[in-house]
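Q: I'm a student working through a structural biology exercise. My instructor gave each of us a protein and asked us to get a predicted structure, then write a short paragraph describing it. Mine is Cytochrome c oxidase subunit 2. I'm not confident about reading structure output yet, so if you can add a plain explanation after the tokens, that would really help. Here is the sequence I was given:
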Amino acid sequence: MAYPMQLGFQDATSPIMEELLHFHDHTLMIVFLISSLVLYVISLMLTTKLTHTSTMDAQEVETIWTILPAVILILIALPSLRILYMMDEINNPSLTVKTMGHQWYWSYEYTDYEDLSFDSYMIPTSELKPGELRLLEVDNRVVLPMEMTIRMLVSSEDVLHSWAVPSLGLKTDAIPGRLNQTTLMSTRPGLYYGQ
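A: Happy to help. First, here is the predicted structure for Cytochrome c oxidase subunit 2. I'll explain a few features afterward.
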């Protein structure tokens, strides 16, 4: 759950979100090192006299500043592709839940069971009880088992929607006439809010 003035991500609750957090830290460190190097070079150029102008014509320097960015891009792209494939992989889901976005609510259907469906409406601000969160509380929550692979089928009835649970590392677009799927697995019990 996010809290006011939070600067980082929410705590990871799924293996995918843990991988996303590691990738974020990895990429942020690369960006920090590049920014530090560029700041150092700019400060050197502003504070020292250029006595060896012929070094700027060296072929070795051009080779380095051509190959180094390519290596850096590979160091960012390979972990990113691995996570993308992990997010798209669905192996023998234990449960399938169909999610349909409507103009002001979501409909959920447990497709493995007959006639087990319900609508989930957001609770109006005037009806919230003390301790409940505005724009996040709903009248019917989705209940899912933990440590089991669950497939979510996401679509929409009318307009574009987005089904997201940040602590699970999920965000799937609900598009009318298209069926998107995502997989989730929670590693610990709890109440997870989405948008």
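A: Here are two points you could use in your paragraph. The two ends are 12 Å apart (CA to CA). The beta strands are 95-101, 105-110, 117-121, 150-156, 161-165, 170-174, 180-184. It's a good idea to check both against the output above yourself.
Q: Great, thank you!
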